[in-house]
Design goal:
single chain, 14% strand, alpha+beta, four-stranded mixed β-sheet
Length: 540
């Protein structure tokens, strides 16, 4: 007999098993010292070394917009639940590195896989006086640091990388990348799942299909118990990023503006919730303005550092890396500016396409009027004035043509939305009957009928899921046309249905129109809510 621990006697075989297990654990601890700050290794990790044999891990966030020099990912930041401070706003995001992705080139940036930990922070900045070396292994997010501390950490880490591990950094042309705090747009795009999710899932407040405690730390006994947790314990989002919405709120590089990129700048932006945030408050759009200094005139001010606030880094690059890059950008500029870039100004970022075109037409008309005045002043002659008059008339004709095109497009998409809504209504009416018959067949033990009805149930459910996708897409297309054209289209289609005595379709169309109105106001798809409303309408 051998003693394993006081009071417990075990046999030789059991002792060998236990000690063998402990030996394996000890060997793993020696063989993989760098795993301390990558508790959930995964394929696709970008691993950068740190002083003392530690590491920091990043994940690629692809744009899925091709390899053009002006490739941008347009998306909407914000959510209606955040009120005016998170009003949905269209932005355009670019990447930093052109990377081969399954045989094709795509732009990406790299987001920190985890929040920067105490161990990583002190590895770069040095331990405080009297602190234990064990602190270098801490996986708790680094908190109680200021915005300026985070910038200093990034600067010192960059200097170390340039001197000791430049070959490990991703390259943009001849220029190595560097770490910094993420911008607000980079953060939210990654928090929502980036290009790896469809538009409906991207629109959700929370990007997860499963229960939230599986992914994020928030306040209360079902999650954090109001205590800070180690990084990387919970499951990551679809991009492989951990703790994006909870545990600690995260500093960004961006200055706070109420409308994201327009308006007066204030403090810095912190994104996400933390371990004291209520579950109902967590969302991908959650943003707060953080002052650089806190205090009062009476008691004085000090740099803002909180126990609930930390940060993660992103890997970026400069834009003008060399002359070749500059030439590529210059060559592509006109095509970009006349195409995708024409819709980028904040004033028209969420307007219908026709409104964006009207803005450009108005600008062109103003330029034309100035040109006509200059020609008249210089005595350019009757022939030139007549040609300029033709241009002016053509611009006016284009406005008429656009109006008719808007009207035709709105009617087509309103009709598609109405037809898809009615199809959903009919399928949702069928589903309860199929489920009832299936339950009855299961109770009666009618195997053949159970199999047949199970197939029918799956078919109806598949029809519903597919139709919801088409339904939301028709709303997106409809939203690209002016409000007046949409209203006219719904009225026109209602008249058509009444003329053909389609009472059920008219009833459903009212719901479709109300759902589109909500979508147009929030700019977010709510397929779950739409289905519930149509189910209620379809109920006997």
């Amino acid at each position: 007999m051998r003693m394993f621990r006081p009071g417990v006697i075990i046999g030789d075989g059991a002792a060998r098993t236990v000690w063998g297990f402990l030996l394996v654990l000890a060997m793993l601890a020696v063989a993989w010292p760098c795993r301390a700050h990558n508790p959930r290794p995964a394929q696709g990790d970008m691993v950068l070394p740190m002083p003392g044999g530690e590491e920091m891990v990043f994940r690629p966030v692809f744009l899925d917009q091709g390899d053009g020099p002006f490739a941008l990912r347009r998306f909407k930041m914000g959510d209606p639940s955040g009120g005016f401070r998170e009003h949905p706003t269209a932005v355009a995001l670019g990447g930093s590195f052109l990377v081969d992705r399954g045989g094709r080139k795509d732009w990406c940036y790299y987001m920190g896989k985890y929040e920067v930990t105490e161990g990583q922070y002190y590895t770069v900045m040095g331990l405080p006086d009297g602190a234990s070396q064990d602190l270098l292994q801490s996986n708790l997010p680094m908190t109680r640091v200021t915005y300026f501390d985070a910038l200093t950490f990034a600067d010192r880490y960059n200097r170390w990388l340039m001197e000791n591990a430049q070959g490990k950094l991703p390259m943009s042309g001849p220029s190595p990348g560097f770490v910094r705090l993420p911008t607000e747009a980079e953060w939210e795009f990654a928090a929502r799942g980036g290009a790896e999710v469809g538009p409906d899932q991207f629109d959700r407040k929370i990007p997860y299909d499963d229960v939230l405690p599986k992914y994020e730390w928030f306040s209360g006994p079902s999650s954090s118990h109001n205590k800070l947790k180690a990084s990387g314990v919970l499951d990551p989002n679809v991009l492989g990023l951990h703790d994006m919405l909870g545990n600690v709120t995260e500093m960004t590089q961006s200055l706070y503006r109420i409308e994201y990129y327009q308006g007066r700048p204030g403090g810095f932006v912190a994104r996400g919730g933390h371990f004291l945030t209520a579950e109902a408050m967590l969302r991908s759009s959650l943003r707060t303005e953080e002052p650089f200094y806190i205090g009062s005139q009476a008691k004085g001010f000090k740099p803002n550092a909180k126990p609930t606030m930390g940060f993660r880094l992103t890997l970026s690059s400069i834009i003008y890396t060399d002359r070749a890059t500059l030439k590529d950008l210059e060559f592509a500029w006109e095509e970009y500016r006349e195409g995708q870039g024409a819709a980028m100004p904040a004033a028209v970022s969420v307007s219908p396409t026709s409104v964006q075109a009207d803005v450009k037409s108005q600008e062109a008309m103003e330029h034309l009027q100035r040109l006509k005045a200059e020609v008249a002043r210089l005595g350019g002659g009757e022939a030139l004035s007549r040609e300029l008059g033709f241009v002016e008339a053509s611009l006016a004709d284009m406005a008429v043509i656009r109006r008719q095109a808007d009207e035709d497009s709105a009617y087509a998409w309103a009709k598609i939305a109405a037809e898809q809504g009615f199809f959903l209504y009919r399928e949702l009416r069928k589903l309860p009957t199929v489920l009832m018959l299936l339950e009855s067949a299961e109770k009666a033990g009618r195997t053949a009928m159970v199999e047949k009805l199970g197939t029918r149930r799956d078919e109806v459910q598949g029809n519903i899921d597919a139709a919801l996708g088409t339904y939301s897409e028709s709303f997106r297309r409809l939203a690209s046309t002016p409000d007046w054209a949409v209203d006219k289209a719904f009225e026109r289609y209602t008249e058509f249905l009444l003329k053909h005595s389609a009472a059920d379709q008219v009833r459903v169309l009212k719901t479709v129109r109300a759902q589109y109105k909500d979508f147009d106001q929030t700019k977010r798809a709510d397929t779950v809510g739409w289905r519930r409303q149509l189910e209620a309408l379809a109920a006997p």
